[in-house]
Amino acid sequence: MTIEEKLKSMHLELPPLPTAKGKLAPAVRSGNLVFTSGNVSPEKGKVGKDLSVEQAYVAAKHCLVNVLGNLRAAGVDLNKVKRVVKLLGFVNCAEGFTDTPGVIHGATDTLIALYGEEAGWHARSAIGVYQLPGNVAVEIELIVEVAD
């Protein structure tokens, strides 16, 4: 099953290819590593105030799908990802909210479901922040290794 087929079976779909580039590249390849720019969730608000951990977990999934869309837009065949190396996740937190790992698990669980334990397991940081652009709930970056 391809990555896109797996996403569809999870009721997730890659976003359309972007038409404008703006002031940043969606992803940059250096050798066999591809570094993505930050991608945001469509869900907005502070986790622990406007959104529950469960809602933010879903936001992290949606955010991860946007990251995969940007990898595809940068010319990466998602089926040729050999390894997810690093995930950096930011969570827009209300004061006192500390379960940032519980939120970013939404992205991690999705990657493992798509690529399996060996290729999907990754190094990770789940950082709580006071504010994200446009008051989005989650922002994620990835580093992946791709096959030649």
Explain what the structure shows:
The chain is α+β, with helices and mostly antiparallel strands and 148 residues long. It has a domain of 90 residues: 60s Ribosomal Protein L30, Chain: A, CATH 3.30.1330.40. It has three helices and six strands; from the N terminus they run H-E-E-E-H-E-H-E-E. Strands 1, 2, 3, 4, 5 and 6 form a six-stranded mixed beta sheet that branches. A hairpin with a 2-residue loop joins strand 1 and strand 2. Helix 2 crosses helix 3. The longest helix is centred in the middle third of the chain and has 21 residues.
CATH topology of the domain at 38-73 and 87-140: 60s Ribosomal Protein L30, Chain: A
Total of DSSP H or I helical runs spanning 4+ residues: 3
Give helix and strand order, one letter per element, not per position.
Answer: HEEEHEHEE
Helical amount among residues, as a percent range?
25-40%
Please identify which CATH superfamily of the domain at 38-73 and 87-140 we are dealing with: RutC-like
